[in-house]
Amino acid sequence: MVNNPCNNPQPDRYNPTRESMNITRPIVSIITPTYNAEKYVRQTIDSVVAQSFPDWEMICVDDCSSDGTVRIVRSLQEQDSRVKLFQLEKNSGPGIARDHAVAKAQGRYLAFLDADDLWKTEKLAKQVDFMQRENLPFTFCFYDWMTEDGRMVGKTVTAPNPLTYEHMRYCNHVGNLTGIYDTERFGKIPISGIRKRQDWMLWLTILKEIKIARPVAESLAVYRLRENSVSSSKWKMLRANFDFYRQHFQESQWRAGVSLAINVYHQFFVKPRYFRNDKSLEVTGKRANE
C-alpha cells in the first residue's frame, strides 16, 4: 500500500494559520520553476499543501508557458496564499526561473521541487527537524520513481551516507526534489543560467564548503520519469554531463572527456548500487496519489 502524498490527514498540531502564529517570515521557501506543466502542476502543489509542516511559502516562477499552467497555479494561489506566482517576460530556462524564485524567497531554508514531482506528507517536517536537531546546514532524502502517468515503478533511489564532495564529483546523488539548504549558513546561492545540471552545480558548491552531507535515510518524495527528460535519454545525459564538466569545472575538451568517462562508469556501475527495489511500489496500476 503506497502512502498518499496528497491526501493524508494532517495532525491538529500543524493546523494553525500563519496569522494565529504571528509569523511574518516562513521557515521554508519552496523553489518551483514551471513550464508547460498543466498535466502535473496541480498534483505537485497539492502535495505541498498537504505537508504536515505548515510554515512554508511556494515560489512558482513560470517560464512563459503556452498551456494552462499559469491559470492552474493562479487558481491554487487564490485558495492558499502560501502559493505565490511570478512570471518571466521571456522563456529563459529552468535555471533562470529557479534563480528568480530564490531571489523572491523569504524563508530561512530553501527547498526545491519541480512542477511534475511530488512530496510525501512528512517530507518537510522530517527534514527540517533533522536539520535543526543535528545542526546541519544542508540535507537531502531518498525518493521513489513513478512513470510519466503517475504509476509507481517499485524502485527507491538512495545515496551514500555520508555523502562527500568526491562522491558528487562524478555522479549526482542528490535528487533536486530532495535538497534543502540553510540560507543562514550559505546565504542565497545563485543558480546557474545553463539549461541543464543547475542542481548538480548547486550541490557541489555546497559540498565543496561543508565536505560531507547526511540524508534523511528514507524516501520522502516521488520523481516522475518523463519520456523526453534528460535523465530518460542516455545521449542527452552524456551531452549534458560533458557540457557540465566544461562549464562548471572549466575543463578542456580532453579533460572533460576523461571526466565524462569516469561519470559514465559511476552512472552505470556505482549509482545502481544505491537503487533499492520495493515490491510494495511495483507497477500494478497504482498511481502515486492513490
Question: What layout of secondary structure does this protein have?
Answer:
Elements: H1 18-21, E1 28-34, H2 41-49, E2 56-62, H3 69-79, E3 83-87, H4 94-104, E4 109-112, E5 118-119, H5 123-134, E6 138-146, E7 152-157, E8 163-164, H6 165-169, E9 180-182, H7 183-186, H8 198-210, E10 212-224, H9 234-248, H10 253-270, E11 275-277
Helix pairs in contact: 9-10
How is this structure best described in words?
This protein is an alpha/beta fold and 290 residues long. The protein has helices spanning 18-21, 41-49, 69-79, 94-104, 123-134, 165-169, 183-186, 198-210, 234-248, 253-270, and strands spanning 28-34, 56-62, 83-87, 109-112, 118-119, 138-146, 152-157, 163-164, 180-182, 212-224, 275-277. Strands 1, 2, 3, 4, 5, 6, 7, 8, 9, 10 and 11 form an eleven-stranded mixed sheet that branches. The longest helix is centred in the last third of the chain and has 18 residues, at 253-270. It is globular and about 50 Å long.
